Amino acid sequence: MPLPASFADRPPVPAADPLPSPIVDAHTHLDACGADEPAAVRAALDAATAAGVRAVITVGDGLGSARWAAAAAQWDDRLYAAVAVHPTRADELDEAARAELAALARQDRVVAVGETGLDNHWPARGVGAAPALQREAFAWHIQLAKDVGKTLMIHDREAHDEILQILDTEGAPERVAFHCFSGDVALARQCADRGFVMSFAGPVTFRNNHELHAAARFAPADLITVETDAPYLAPHPYRGSTNSPAAVAHTARAMAALRDVELTDFCRQLCATTARLYEVPTAG
Questions:
Q1: 3-class DSSP state for residue 156?
Q2: Domains, in order of start, for the chain
Q3: Mean pLDDT score across all residues of the chain
Q4: Which PROSITE patterns has this protein been placed in (predicted)?
C-alpha cells in the first residue's frame, strides 16, 4: 500500500539518536506507511531498532488492514498486531466481518482489539459512520476484547465522556489503553482511577498543547506508553512530516523532559508497562 496521497511529498522524520534503554512503539500503521511487503517491513523495523525501539504494534483499522496486520506480525519477531474496525467505518461491521475479526483477534501475535471507540469529529462534518452505529460497534469490540482476553485499544476523538460511560456500562476489559491520548488532567484522572493506560503520541510534543502537557505530567508512571500513529502525527519539530516507528524515540525524549525524569528510567518504565499491557515478550 502506498503512503496516503497527502503524505506523498512530505519529508520523513529524521532519525533519532538511539535511546539509552529500548522501548516499544505501541501504535503504528505500517501498511499506511507504505511498508506493506516483508522487505519493507523489515527495513522499517531495522530503522526502529537503530533508534532503540525494540518492538512495534501495527494496527488494523478496517477489515483489510486487520488481515494485513495479523499476517505481517508473522514476518518479524519485532512486530505485533491489533485488529478492529475503526469507528468511522462501523457501517462495515456486518456479521461476516465480525466473524473474521473474532478469528483474527485469537491469533497469538495479535495483542489487542483496536483501534475501536468513538469519533465525533468526522460525522459532524458528514463523513464516516453515524454515532449510533459507532456506539454499537464499540460495544461489540469491548465484548470481543473480553472474550479473547486481550487489551482494548481505544480511538477517542472528541468523545471522552461518552467513551467512559460506555466502558462503565458495558464493563471494561481487564486491560484498556487510550490510543493517542488527547484529554486534559480531568480525563487523565478518570483513566487513572480506572487503571486505564494513556498512550501519548506526537501531539504531546507540540509547544502550545498545554492541557495535554499537564495530563502527561499527571499520568501515573505505570499507566503511560508512547506511540507514533505513523505515518500521522509526527512529533515537534517535524510536525507535518511523514512519521515512522523510529520517531517514537523523539516523543519518549520529549515526555521524559516534560515529566522531569531521567530518560533511562523513563524508557525502562515505558517498556515494562507496554510488556504488561500487551503481553509482548520482547518488550521486557
A1: strand
A2: 22-283 (3.20.20.140)
A3: 95
A4: TATD_1 (PS01137)
